[in-house]
Amino acid sequence: TLHTVPAFDRIGEENAFAVLARATVLAQSGKDIINLGIGQPDFRTPDHIVEAAIKALRDGHHGYTPATGLLACREAVARRTLATTGVEVSPENVMILPGGKPTMYAAIVMFGEPGAEIMYPDPGFPIYRSMIEFTGATPVPIPVREENGFAFSAEETLALITPKTRLIILNSPANPTGGVTPKAEIEKLVKGLEKHPDVAILSDEIYDVMTYDGEVHTSLLTFPSIRDRLIVLNGWSKTWAMTGWRMGWSIWPDRLYNLVRKLAVNCWSCVNAPSQYAGIAAIDGPQDDVDKMMRAFDRRRKVVVEGLNALPGVSCITPKGAFYAFPNVSGTGWKAKKLASALLEETGVALIGGPDFGVLGEGYMRLSYANSEENILRALERIEEFLKR
Ligand code: PLP
């Protein structure tokens, strides 16, 4: 018989993909499905980006690139980082990877082993915990609470650090809650982290420019005191509607950069060349389409929050970032996952139960508003009808 190693039994899932699969089956059987489940923009990648990839292919860029990414692409990331954070980073610290997830994987396998503790947000992106468990390290959830606007509490976070803590994962603006941690709280957190120089930090900033109401994201890069142990995850997937291109970047301190480069050499060699040319065009080209997308998200955000708060037993705080709402559904009398699955089966509205994002997700659901205003309104009507039954 085949003997697979136990670590693979500990790998989890991202339930959003399972919900998408079920919704697709229901749609194929003729059911009218409204998908508020999946975490990807419902926009096409802007044309000038697509054209850059086509040109790269026609120009013969068909081979391997350096494992760290094309220098021109890493330079583009450095320019973009300077523009969004005011911080100068060297292209020698920039790594191009096939999406945001490989940075997560690299950082977690670099620090995770039995006996080590890794802290991660709960509710949070499910892959953090899954990969921590894969390494055999102990996952330590950092509570992210509704009464805090789903921001990190510096005090509560710092209190969880022990001598075994190796890595702490932060994410703002956040999936699944849309929470944005205010600058003052991040400053407090960094002050506290300065007392723990042996703890590495992975800051997932993939939604960095996706904020609303004048909210400004504070990058951990702006704190020189922690730069020598800070990994910043970012990428093209969300901002430029490029989830299928598999393009991410991350910024690594000198002493870790060679390790992630070697991992790339062993695992994927490099990101496909035409995608990297597209990535350069995305950063250097006009941002009108990004602005247009964000204005659409902002309008829908208001529609979603207003609609949710009008539902019986449901309340929803206004998310400040990303493109998710995380309503509190505990007043409906339903368990969140049961409600999500009943809504899909009986009304055709796909969304994700909060427990798929951690134990503190019970009582909540995640709605992605990456869908048309019209569909969002139709979905809200169906949910209302269902809850009133
Ligand atoms: N980080 C967060 C917080 C996300 O929500 C996502 C995607 O859903 C990712 C990382 C992964 O992005 P990618 O599709 O580029 O791997």
Automatic annotation (TrEMBL):
<dbReference type="GO" id="GO:0006520">
    <property type="term" value="P:amino acid metabolic process"/>
</dbReference>
<feature type="domain" description="Aminotransferase class I/classII large">
    <location>
        <begin position="31"/>
        <end position="383"/>
    </location>
</feature>
<dbReference type="InterPro" id="IPR050596">
    <property type="entry name" value="AspAT/PAT-like"/>
</dbReference>
<keyword id="KW-0032">Aminotransferase</keyword>
<comment type="similarity">
    <text>Belongs to the class-I pyridoxal-phosphate-dependent aminotransferase family.</text>
</comment>
<dbReference type="Pfam" id="PF00155">
    <property type="entry name" value="Aminotran_1_2"/>
</dbReference>
<dbReference type="InterPro" id="IPR015424">
    <property type="entry name" value="PyrdxlP-dep_Trfase"/>
</dbReference>
<keyword id="KW-0808">Transferase</keyword>
<dbReference type="InterPro" id="IPR015421">
    <property type="entry name" value="PyrdxlP-dep_Trfase_major"/>
</dbReference>
<dbReference type="InterPro" id="IPR015422">
    <property type="entry name" value="PyrdxlP-dep_Trfase_small"/>
</dbReference>
<dbReference type="GO" id="GO:0030170">
    <property type="term" value="F:pyridoxal phosphate binding"/>
</dbReference>
<protein>
    <recommendedName>
        <fullName>aspartate transaminase</fullName>
        <ecNumber>2.6.1.1</ecNumber>
    </recommendedName>
</protein>
<dbReference type="InterPro" id="IPR004839">
    <property type="entry name" value="Aminotransferase_I/II_large"/>
</dbReference>
<keyword id="KW-0663">Pyridoxal phosphate</keyword>
<dbReference type="GO" id="GO:0004069">
    <property type="term" value="F:L-aspartate:2-oxoglutarate aminotransferase activity"/>
</dbReference>
